[in-house]
Amino acid sequence: MEGGSPLVPSSDRELSPITGWTRDHWENMADRLLDGLLPYASPKFAQYRLPGRASHSGEWSDGLEGFARSFLLAAFRVAGSEGQVGPVLIERYASGLAAGTDPRHPEHWPPITDRGQPMVEAASIAVALHESRAWLWDHLDERVREQVVGWLSDFVGAVVNDSNWRLFQVIVEEFLASVGGPYRRAEIDAGLARLDDWYRGGGWYTDGDGRKFDYYNAWALHLYPVLWARIAGERADPWAVARHRSRLREFLGVHQHFFGADGAPVHQGRSLTYRYAAVTALWAGALADATPLPPGRTRRLASGALKHFTERGVPDERGLLTLGWYRPFLPVAQGYSGPASPYWASKAFLGLLLPVDHPVWTAPEEPAPLDTADVTRALPAPGWLLHATAADGIVRLVNHGTDRLPPPPAEAEDSPHYAKFAYSSATAPGTPPGPDNHIALLGADGPSRRGRIRPLYVAGRTAASRQAPGGCRITTASAVHGPWEVRVHRVEAPAGTVVREGGWAIASDSASPREESGPGWALARRADGLATALVALLEPAGVTPSVDRARGRNAFGEHSATPLLTLPHPGGTLFLATLVVLTADPAVHGDPHALRTGTRATPTGDGGFGIRFPDGTRTVLAPLP
Question: Hey, what's the torsion of the CAs at 169, 175, 180, 184, to 10 degrees?
Fold first, then answer.
């Protein structure tokens, strides 16, 4: 075994030849996170008031959030050790339950009200109570159990946001049913039926109406049906349980590809401050016997993500999870996020519920597909193309279908975590929104936004979509191979309109990425070799290359850089084809001129394009509708 540190156990390269991490590392991290919260606990442990920006729900609710989300972690730790973790941890949360649910106590929790944040936290408390039942709930005073039931009962008949929040009601009311409390079976059934409404195939749910695809599939929409079945037991409809497990199994066949070889999840969607909670579905599949993955691969992927963040300073020197990705970075958070919100990462420790002799803990680690070969997957439901390369371990996600906008005719502002053309495991979008992975028409009021994404197709290695900025129209098709993406844009706009396309934003804390440019191409390169290039292929007139630099706008580092191409629109229809590259493989980005001369986008005469990638591989983009 390799030597560890005072904070991390020694590595075991025999059991875990890829990450070196074992169950000991997971238990150690759980204890470290729980211990880090103690200085911020109220006297009776009902509230954890962490330092940092308050959420829009206020400090009172944020304090409950600190209790509930850490209680989830504590419950997994207690149950996973069969109560052997020690009485202090159990007593701490028993004390918090007694004080928090006593409306006369100064540390009492805010009530559950229509669409209120305590609904979210009530679900975590219900799950934690169920999973630790033998060591906590069964030993609570009858008075405290009545208080807990009384507090949770406000969920019955309450109005819930029409999103993953419907499952919070399912969980809480099913727990109430399990302890003889009030509940409405019709509300439980309605929440599960709503989940069915949102299923789009291929293992994917949208988080409410619209095209809202993200990690809520991993840490909510697939997770809560598994937890509901555990709480409901024989009360659960076996057909619903089987349906949920089948969908989870299909989802995991794809989800395994969303982690870079270094363990980093693809940086897309909201609530990214939950970080390694992205692995939750992996454990849920093992817990529910609903996974296509061998147990050694499940642990390799999950441990890879936990190790990735640990090696990059998560948690911080105080033992706290902060609002950010690696370092604190508020633009990655939403208004509903408070100082304790990152502790939804507790869900990542679901695997501790699996016994120590379960194969996910005892089988040798097995490589993920990306560890040995390139991966390409077409994902029609969310409108994505995934392409990943073994040479540098990077996963890239091309977006032609997910915008998280409400259904028409309602409108909302774009989010940089949904509106970009691509996301990856090695980069983050500029926040506030920058020019990266975006084509814009530049006007007096600034660059156009992508707005509603209208998916056209996703098939094989190609995908296409349309946007309609400011009365104009841009239709874009992508073809992917290895580390490369070729984008062909058909831009319909007035003459003189300035068109700007951006490549990937790469970022670093140590120094600003180096920039290079030449005729029809621009490149940014980080000191460690990560590089991004944007190369014009059709050579329209007036192309100007440049590199946009920014500070304090990227979750991956203080200094960021994005290659750009800008050109005037001649009027009518303009075709702009570009090669978009993100790679850490020097064999790929070493010669930008060779990238340009070795890549082709040739009109086929029927509105399509023949594509030749730099390595000679060819494909065809179908005619743009």
Answer: 20
Q: How does pLDDT run across 273-292, given as a tens digit for each residue?
A: 999 999 999 999 999 999 99
CA distance 316 to 50: 13
Per DSSP bridges, beta strands 544-551 and 559-568 are antiparallel
Structural contact between residues 54 and 62, judged by C-beta atoms closer than 8 angstroms: yes
- Is 296:364 a contact under the CB 8 Å cutoff? yes
The tens digit of pLDDT for each residue in 196-222 reads 999 999 999 999 999 999 999 999 999
Long-range (24+ apart) CB contacts under 8 A made by 135-142 are: 135/78, 135/79, 135/83, 135/90, 136/75, 136/78, 136/90, 136/93, 136/94, 137/179, 139/94, 140/94, 140/97, 140/98, 141/98
Sheet containing 521-525: order of strands: 454-459, 462-467, 473-481, 484-493, 572-583, 531-536, 521-525, 514-518
CA distance 117 to 341: 11
CA torsion, points 313, 314, 316, 322, in degrees to nearest 10? 130
Contact criterion met (CB below 8 Å) for 188 and 170:
yes
- Whether the model clears a pTM of 0.85, i.e. scores above it, the answer is yes
Q: Which residues of 468-485 are buried (b: 16+ CB within 10 A; e: fewer)?
A: ebeebebbbbbbbbbbbb
Instruction: Determine the Cα–Cα distance for residues 309 and 19; give it in Å rounded to an integer.
Output: 13
Q: Could you tell me which residues are beta bridge partners of residue 577?
A: 488
Mean pLDDT of 254-268: 98
Nearest-angstrom CA–CA distance, 375 and 397: 11
What residues contact residue 586 under an 8 Å CB cut-off, 6+ apart? 529
